[in-house]
Amino acid sequence: MFLRLLIIFIIVAIAGAVFYNYNRSDDDTSPLLRGLAKVRSLAKEAAPEPPVETAVYKWQDKNGEWHFSNQPPPEGVAADVTVYRSDVNVTPAPKADTPQENTTANPATNPTNLPLLPLTDPTRIKQLIDDAKNVQNLADDRQQQIDQKTSN
Hints:
This protein is α+β, with helices and mostly antiparallel strands. It is 42% helix and 12% strand. Strands 2-1-3 form a three-stranded antiparallel β-sheet, with no helix packed on it.
C-alpha cells in the first residue's frame, strides 16, 4: 500500500513539476529535467533515517524497587544494560508448539482433541453428518410447530 502511494506521489510530483515550470522562460533547462531534479530532491528528503540506538538501564534499589531508565543508575549500583535499535524488532519470536502425545484412545470420544482440518477421519465425518441430520430434524420440527400455530 505504501509503495503504491509512493508511486502515485512521484507521478503527481513529476506531472506537477512539468506543468508548473512549463510557461517559465527564464530558465534554459527543460521542464522535464527541472521536474526530475525536484523529484530527486524530494526523494532525498523522504529517505529513511539511519537507525537509532537506545540504551535501557535496569536496576533494583535498596528497597527492592525496579527502575528502568535511559540514564545510568547512581554510582555503585549494578545495572543490566540492554541496547535497542530502531530498525530491529525487539518482540521475541513465538515459541514453537511441541507435539503432545494423545492420551485419548479414541479421538471421536473426546471432541476437544479433534483437529479442525482435514476432515479425513471416517468416524468424525460420520459424526458430522449425523449432527447435521439432527440439526435439520430440529429445524423441520420447529417449522412444523410454527405452521401449526399460524394455521389455527
